[in-house]
Amino acid sequence: MTDTIEKVASTNPPTKQATRYLGNCTSIVMAWHQRLLEIKNKAQQLQGEDGEAHSAYLQFFRTTISASDAAKLKRCQHMDDVAMQPAFIALWQQVEPTLIKSIANHSAYNHKISDNTFAAWLAVAWVLSQVRTVDDHYLVASAGKSKRQLNNTLACVAGQRQDDGDRPLITPLRFEKLISARDPNNFVSLLARMVAQLQQQGQAINVVWLANDILHWFADYQGSNYRTPKDKLTVQWSLTYYQMYSD
Question: ∠ CA 198-203-205 to the nearest 5 degrees?
Fold first, then answer.
């Protein structure tokens, strides 16, 4: 990692930036993915995070998601396939009422969850099911030529240099294909493959950042989500990726 980055202890809670689009669903996502990791590790149940909400969600997922459910979700080839998987349905059973409550708190008229929001959560489940090595740390800019905040999103990991110091972990061409994607299925498919590649390279992924960024992309896709170009996820990813690569 570059000298412009300082790691913050993993015991620190996720920042508001990391959970802006996840909102009140952060504990749900963390508990759901923790259940998938327990299944993969085939080991003693992992210690839950502090907090009654997280523990309650984790216990729910332990009773509703089996090893075969997790395997079927990971093997999906299309977002439409994800919607029929028990592992996703268990996630959605917890997410949907939380979203409805959040919508109701902000609108007196429309309590309906949009098709775009449902598709975004299909994407979250599909991509996060590929993550088997997790990084719970959060990164902030501490010194150096740029004071702009950095984070350990996919772009931050992808832009890190390989051991030989000459190339980033993800080539600029492949990264540009991802940020240029305009179709949700294309974007999610490219993203899932990139996550798998980084995992094969031994890179840990922060599932909170990743889930939040997927929801951010779908909010941009729906339109009217940002006031300036820099608010777009693809612009933020691009700035982070090339800063990591050039440092």
Answer: 90
